[in-house]
Each structure stands twice: as C-alpha cells, then as structure tokens.
Amino acid sequence: MNNIDRMIAEDLLKIKAVFLRPEEPFTWASGIKSPIYCDNRLTLTAPEVRNDVEESLAATISEKFPGVEVLMGTATAGIAHAAITAHLMGLPMGYVRSGAKDHGRGNQIEGKLLPGQKTVVVEDLISTGGSCIDAVNVLREAGADVLGVVSIMTYGMKRGIDRMAEAEIECYSLTNFDKVIEVAAEKGYIAAEDIERLKAFRDDPSDESWIRK
Fold first, then answer.
1. pLDDT in tens, 15-54
2. Three-class SS of 12-60
3. Is the pTM of this model over 0.85?
4. Are residues 151 and 182 in contact, defined by beta-carbon separation less than 8 angstroms?
5. Could you give the CA distance from residue 185 to residue 194 in angstroms, rounded to a whole number?
6. Less Cβ around it within 10 Å: N or C end of the chain?
C-alpha cells in the first residue's frame, strides 16, 4: 500500500485524466472557476493505468474493509471500476442509479443485494460528496450494511469531508488533490509557486481570489 497515492497521481497526470490549468480555469456547471479538470473514465482506455487503479482499489478494500461481501458502483463513472475490482476480488457487484427507473421494476439498485450484506461503494471522484452520500443512503434504505466508500481521487474539500463525517461514512481514496498538485509541480505540469493558490481553491472553491487577474 506504500506510495499508492503518488503512483495514482502520476498515472492520472500522465494520461491527462487529471488536467491542471491554473492560468486558464475551467468552469464547473455550478459556475465555479476551477484550476482542475478530472475525468477518471480515461483510466479505462489506458490499460497500464487501469491495472494500477483496479489493483489498488482491490488492495485498499481488502485492507480497510476485510469483511466486504459485495461492491456497488455509483452511476455512471463508478460502475466499470466496481465491476473490474469485484472481478479481481471474486466478489459480486452491482450499481446504484442516480434515480429509480421509470419503467420495468423501477429499480434504483441494479444487481442482487441481500439485507444486511456488507457493502463497499466504489466511486471515481469525490468533491462535495453529494452523489456518494445519496448512493449510500439508497443502499442503507435497502437494508445493506455499508462499510464505507473507496474512490480513485478526492479533492479533499472541507465541505465534502464534513458531509461524509456527518453521514457517518468511512471513506478512502487512492490519491488526493494535494498529492496531485505536489507531483504536478515536481513533474513540471505546473509551477511550484502555484501550489499554495491551488490549495486556496481546495479550501474554498467559491472564493476566486486564487485566480491571477
């Protein structure tokens, strides 16, 4: 488990699944200006990186949640990672829709889930934690014993950390925003002097004072 955070940070930067652009910020759907763009779906089309990610997810789950009986991915980005990791671990898997289907049986949980079954949620990215918490709540309402959540990356935002703690969700990520920008500076993706202002973004995304005018 040593240095997984660095390895995954290097992997994500290499394939531009994480792309840092502090001088030309991205705009989120909420309107917030962000120096980072993250698309962990790109790991699926990079076999070496995909192997690092899925094997690290399996190792993390085995270490942190040894009693796990089933993996549940979040729709849609967590589904493939939950499936591959479950295959490596020899576990059943399913996924949680963002909302119940409006046809058929109206399922929101896809796959077999038994009451009391020890479940780990697989997510690709955690920012404010909202979608992850929603998935956990759906599983809990269905009777699952949700042990916790694993994700590929977390932004480590205070709001997300506080919300996960309030919801009593144990969460582990393979890498995080701070490690990504540390590695990015070392590898020359960003300037070393950018680190502190990028951390300012992490601390309060709504405060745009980190942006150079």
1. 999 999 999 999 987 788 999 999 999 999 999 999 999 9
2. HHHCCCEEECCCCCEECCCCCEECEEECHHHHHHCHHHHHHHHHHHHHH
3. yes
4. no
5. 8
6. C
